[in-house]
Amino acid sequence: MKNLRFKFVVATSPLFVATHIPRANYMIKHKEKYTEQQRYDFAMKIENHMRRRARTKTDVFGRENLPQDGGYIMYANHQGKYDALGIMLAHPKPCAMLWEEKSADRLVARQVCGLVEGTTISFEDPKQQIGALKTIAERVKDGKPYLIFPEGGYTDNKNELQEFKSGCFSCSLKSKTPMVPVVIYDSWRSMDTNTFEKVRTQVYFLPPIPYEEYGKLRKYDVCELVKKRIQEKLDELKEADPRR
Q: By C-alpha distance, which of 205, 192, 233, 194 is closest to 67?
């Protein structure tokens, strides 16, 4: 059996799900009754429960690098089911996320996506992809922070990068807003293993890349610029890891 830790989180949370999912659905249906912060805080309450059940703690570095005003897009490496939880719980203010359509339609993920007003994308529908990326660009331009995983998904890559999809960087080129590379380390250990020991992961918000630095580059080159920043930090962390 695979991912026993994740299955343990799900199996030991029936009472929490029974009480919090209906409340989340109500808040999504009646958004006018709740502020953005209230809905986001409730989403983080759900995510924090999952973090605790997964026996995971996350060390966060570089919050001072996050822009204080306006929208921006965080581009992070992808390792497993805990990645979005670890980053969003570390983020100090409401942010949205780009979700793969099928993943966002699962119980709990569907509620969190609705509460944070995330955007879904279909890997099988190019036209829908264009529309989703355009929506994100508009929302970021209007001041909304966003989280995107440019690898699109994950396999068994652990702390190794996979290929980045350059298309998602059109959101930054269109919105002309800062890009914040985000590095997660050991995130795969939280919900993608068969062990039950306590886990400690790491999140690094790297210095933002302003539009003035990348605005004249081609989409592919913007992609490579962000990937290079993330790879350099990963190499640094792996070099310092005493388990190597």
A: 205
| CA 240 and chain centroid, separation | 25
pLDDT at 195 (0 to 100): 85
Phi, psi of 142 (to 5 degrees): -85, 0
Find tokens 């913007």 and name the residue.
Answer: 222
pTM for the complete prediction? 0.95
Strand-pairing partners, residue 182, are: 76, 205
Distance CA 173, CA 73 (A): 11
Residue-wise pLDDT tens digits, 170-211: 999 999 999 999 999 999 999 988 888 999 999 999 999 999
Residue 81 Cα to chain centre, angstroms: 10
Give SS3 for 98: strand
Distance, in Å, from the CA atom of 18 to the CA atom of 184, rounded to the nearest integer, reads 31
